[in-house]
Amino acid sequence: MNKQAKDNYEILLALDKTQKRINELRARELQLPPIEALVLSTISDIAPSEAIPAEISQRVFRRPHSASALLQRMEKKGLVERARNLEKKNMVRVTMTEKGQQVYRKSTREKSLHEAMAVLSEEERQQLRGLLEKLREEGFKALGMEQKLPWP
Fold it and tell me: Which CATH number characterizes residue 46's domain?
């Protein structure tokens, strides 16, 4: 393996391990898998009563069947409700329940994420964001996929 390939692999491994550790801390604090916190955040970002499974799936980078199973689990936990659209019978709308809204508000104040990111200055956070966005865009381009971000 040449030096550049080794460096690329080590960077990817470091990124993966960092994400996993932060997600473990978040899951412990929220008592909720980070993907469910992301779904709640995504629903919150979409106009009220406008969230549909297909858009949620795109924004959280999950295949439709995986997002559907995730929404079913969240519905069983009482975090979201799915309801058929009265105008378009084949369309389902997803909304947060009161419990879902409480969990979402808690997730926006989570201590573990803020502490993990506090080691970076504002300038470093912006640099990191820019670099990660650049890598993500290239990945989407290479896969021929359109990206819908869960943030602006």
Answer: 1.10.10.10
